[in-house]
Specification:
Blueprint: E1 4-8, E2 20-27, H1 30-43, E3 47-50, E4 56-58, E5 63-70, E6 75-80, E7 83-89, H2 94-103, E8 106-107, E9 128-129, E10 132-133, E11 138-145, E12 150-155, H3 156-159, H4 167-171, E13 176-187, H5 196-204, H6 212-225, E14 239-242, E15 248-249, H7 251-261, E16 268-270, E17 276-278, H8 280-286, E18 294-295, E19 298-300, E20 307-310, H9 316-334, E21 343-345
Parallel strand pairs: 2-5, 3-5, 4-21
Antiparallel strand pairs: 1-2, 6-7, 7-13, 8-13, 9-10, 11-12, 11-13, 14-20, 15-17, 16-17, 18-19, 19-20
Helix pairs in contact: 5-6
Length: 347
């Protein structure tokens, strides 16, 4: 394996900023992934894994190491009666997979429609939206353990999923390179309707008992209205989608924050563990920011206050500075520290 050198990473990321990788390789099969790990280890070079680049901020100085773009493809299914196991290569694009499962009548991923990126990234941050998350359907995954060089199989329990988090994100980041993921879906199952906005959209369309396809259509329409689908012609296209996760706090803390706002109503979503999820976008706007607000070449999306957009001429430093300003102002106003959702390289 001979990697390319000095490859600009900005074109591989939806944010469109960042420097170059000192070394770069496209790994379209598992053998190349292993070869890349061996190459990097033998030379003492740091190894970073790139998927679809939709949740990544690359620093302006780039990455002084080997970047491996995992492109392992393939979809296999196993019939389990009322359920079906779907095993998918880490390099498969996510939304086309969701489209296939919906078309086949397999429930479990329909509310995750329209999300950019590749399958291999979904377990890392426990991708979720509109009332569903990957942890609900993921059974196992196979990964290269960079400590041992062996391919291992990890169970759902091993993954240690939490809200937008997992073993791979905060437990042992960088240790495992995901190769394929297996999901358990419900054959002929009813769609998930836990999210009020989706239910309202379906109602406005006159859909009383929605199919998987109708839920998918509503989710995509909602995401498109917020510039949360990939559309090169959209002025908000260069972003990572949601830049911050929604804070989860105690009931007492939520009450305190609402008292600070002085608002009679504040979005708050009770969680199974008794805590409360707050709406980061609402906090951002009530800290003095507005949709479309800009600071030079960086600003908020004109359609969603949770998306930081890089316009022409923006640098990674600009993006990070703007995001830190949001964090500072929200914390100063409400005493709540927003947690960034993207992964940062060299920042």
């Amino acid at each position: 394996m001979i990697p390319d050198e000095h490859v600009l990473l900005a074109p591989y990321c939806t944010l469109g900023v960042g420097g170059s990788a000192r070394f770069f390789v496209d790994a379209e099969d598992e053998a190349t992934v292993t070869d890349a790990w061996t190459w990097a280890r033998s030379r003492g070079v740091a190894l970073s894994v790139l998927g679809g680049g939709s949740n990544l901020v690359v620093g302006d100085a780039g990455v002084d190491g080997l970047v491996v773009r995992v492109g392992v493809r393939g979809i296999e299914t196993a019939d389990k009666g009322h359920e079906v196991l779907v095993s998918v290569g880490a390099g498969e694009p996510w939304d086309p997979l969701v489209a296939v499962t919906v078309e086949c009548g397999w429930a479990g991923l329909e509310c995750l429609s329209g999300i950019p990126g590749l399958v291999g990234a979904t377990p890392i941050q426990n991708v979720g939206a509109y009332g569903q998350e990957v942890a609900e359907t993921l059974v196992t995954l196979r990964a290269l353990d960079t400590r041992s060089g062996r391919v291992v199989r990890l169970t759902h329990t091993d993954c240690r999923f939490a809200y937008r988090d997992s073993l791979f994100k905060s437990g042992e980041p960088g240790r495992f390179i995901v190769l394929d993921v297996t999901y358990r879906l419900r054959r002929g199952g009813e769609p998930t309707l836990r999210y009020a906005e989706v239910a309202q959209h379906l109602g406005a369309r006159g859909v009383g008992r929605p199919s998987l396809a109708e839920v998918r259509a509503s989710v995509i329409a909602i995401r498109r209205s917020k510039s949360m689908v990939i559309d090169p012609g959209d002025e908000n296209a260069r972003s990572c989608g949601s830049f911050f996760t929604n804070p989860i706090v105690s009931v007492a803390e939520a009450d305190r924050v609402q008292a600070v706002t002085g608002e009679p109503v504040m979005p708050r979503y009770p969680q199974a563990d008794g805590r409360v999820k707050l709406a980061a976008a609402w906090l951002i706007e009530h800290a003095g920011f507005s949709k479309g607000q800009r600071d030079g070449a960086v600003g908020l999306s004109t359609r969603h206050a949770l998306a930081v957009v890089a316009h022409a001429g923006a640098t990674a430093s600009d993006v990070v500075a703007f995001a830190r300003r949001i964090q500072h102002d929200v914390e100063a106003r409400f005493g709540v520290r927003l947690t960034p959702e993207p992964v940062f390289w060299g920042v």
